[in-house]
């Protein structure tokens, strides 16, 4: 009996000792957690203090650099109205580039296949001849060939005058395009001249095969 009672007492003591060790381990874990939390708070506080210490030093460094740099001074210049006008008048002259000088036209260049004189002069002479043929045929009742035979000097004079009048402006670099105004355009004169050349040529063919004048 005594042995049994001793064993029971020993078992009770061992169980209480185990409970105490468990409580001690729990307290240790709690202490570790609290210490970790405290260390994290200490680290955050140290970071804040470092940032608070660095900000004034950075600001002081920026101010020192700004003081070392030379200050830019603004100077306001007021010009009189006469000076402003003179500068405005002089500015376009300096900015406008000098025009490229065009080559002076020659007789050969004007009378070439691609020159302006052949078609322009022939068109003007055809317009003059066609309109004169209509008027003179109705007045005289004669064909174009007979009119040319009766008035050779007049026909030659008008032809030379029109050709010279076509040459002179072109030699002075004055083209029909530059003097075009309103309905009097260079293209209109060119197309009218072509139509007159075609009409005058048809008139000569018709009257060559007929006995009387066409008009």
Give your account of this protein's structure.
By secondary structure, the chain is mostly helical. The protein is about 75% helix and about 0% strand. It has 7 helices and no strands. It has helices at about 1-70, 80-95, 105-110, 115-140, 145-150, 150-170, 185-210. α4 (about 115-140) runs antiparallel to α6 (about 150-170) and α4 (about 115-140) crosses α7. It starts with a helix and ends in a 7-residue tail after the last helix. About 10% of the residues are buried. The model has no long low-confidence stretch (mean pLDDT about 75).
- Please provide the count of β strands: 0
- The number of helical elements comes to 7
Mean pLDDT: 77
Q: Please write the string of helix (H) and strand (E) elements.
A: HHHHHHH
What characterizes the major β-sheet?
none
Measured on Cα atoms, how large is the radius of gyration?
58 Å
Shape: rod-shaped
